[in-house]
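chain below, 279 aa
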Amino acid sequence: MDTYRPAVTWNLSRKGRLYREASALVLSIPKSGRTWFRVILSKYLALHFGQQIDIGGYNAAQAVVPNILYSHEMWSHRMTDSIRRRLLGFYICPDPVLRKKPVMVVHRDPRDVLVSLYFHARKRSRRQYKGSISELVRDDLRGVRAMVVLLNTWRQRLADKPDVLWVGYADLHTNPFELVNMAIHILGIEPNADYINAAIAFSQFGNMRKLEEEGGLGQGFLSPRDSKDPESFKVRSGKVGGYRQYLNDGDLAYIDQALDELDPFFGYSSPGANSSSPR
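prediction:
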């Protein structure tokens, strides 16, 4: 089973301090449902502590509520073309820091991630992707094989860590209360069922789409590039298994072959699997 270790395992940048100071970490590959999960947690914390919480996550000025740092970590390290950031380990969370923090890993069927990532790269990214979705599937840096290696590596680094929660995107659809309840527990807070239900209701796809249209969350990243183009929204589809509309048989065969190397823990290895629960 392939795993990935970056050329550096340290972080000498200013972000290294943020990793050390954060109360908890949320890791994910882009387009895995992290924004949705972030909105749920942020709304819960806002209700629990009676104050407005910035969904951007970690804020050095916040002392009352858990400060959560959201990061793509090794994915961002692989993607950066900045030699300076690579040498500093700008995006890397060193293992000694990772071991001390509660960690949540948001993961999603790589097939759906690839489709969402493609539309993000085509419609939202500053550096617009010019290739086809088939080319993205096979891309060395952000294609399915890169996703498999990074998920395997996170699994290996965190497998024996007690305070880690694996948040499956499909499970957020089918069993959000249990996942959010566990997330609040891992933050060291006694969960409130009413607040959990309110946070889940607030984060429903229709409401998040409306908030994005209206800029209701106060975050520049949560806004469409073109309000007339539904594929340019950050809150784009929200479906489980929607990849079938966009990937051809050759793409799916290539992806299935790559997923044979993915740790079975994630439940995405079998052809057509799209709603397995983390074990």
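The CA atoms of residues 28 and 38 lie 11 Å apart. The beta strands are 24-28, 68-71, 103-107, 164-168.
thats it, cya
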